[in-house]
Amino acid sequence: MATKPTAATTSKARALSLHIGLNAVSTAAYEGWGGPLAACEFDANDMAAIAKSKGMKPTVLLTKKATRANTLAGMRSAARSLKAGDLFFMSYSGHGGQMPDIDHEEPDHKDETWCLYDGQLIDDELYFALSKFASGVRILVLSDSCHSGSVTRGMPPPPPPPGQRVKLMPEAVAMRVYGAHQAFYDKLQRDVAKAAGGAVVDPDAALAQVGAAAQATALVGSFKPTVVLISGCQDNQTSMDGDHNGAFTEQLLKVWNRGAFTGTYGNFHARIKAAMPPSQSPNLFVLGKATRFLAQTPFAV
Description:
Helix content is 33%, strand content 18%. It is α/β, with parallel strands linked by helices.
């Protein structure tokens, strides 16, 4: 005779996290550019501390360890391990980059990238890796970087205030890096499209048109897990580095207040945004059915 599950036999949700922080990149991979920053490793360690305080098992990749292979391996391992109801928390602090998007017809459209130590991670790759998580897995992504080159921007962002470091790979460097490694990056885009069974719907193109969360889901199509992403700025802005934390991460930590914050993800984003200057407004978007996820307290397992 079957028995009803009790509190002792019901499995609890599991949670894993991956935290990436780069204070520099390899000059060999970026055509002589080292991209020096100061606070990104602090950002990654602080996000890992939050994860650990909530019972997660964090993995931290700092600068030279924050390679393409290590980042993708961390995501793939989590995707294999987690099931419906589980949580994957991922944070990135470092430079944002851009490169031509070879999968779309618009000649001026560019893919966004994360500048990892030994090469860029294209947003198509990130989206495809996230799509491999099981249905019902909750994924939280916090990205303290610039998001340049999207279709939403007609003009480059204004220069940063004097003495401040911006988390953006300069356009001239981006084009030089792409030109030197074009075969590698073009093949990555084609390989992702082939693995996905056709052209991958670019999250940039979708998010450029998002007026509500439901639109994002409709534009990117079927997406099994649920993703909530809070990024450091809008597409036409730049994220600032700091001495101890990036500007976005600094305000996030203040709002979180060592766990005293008790609101929802929507409240969390709104409070962080309200504390930021007009020149840097954190963005919030979702993929998948996120209504219940958004209503939860941040970082809740």
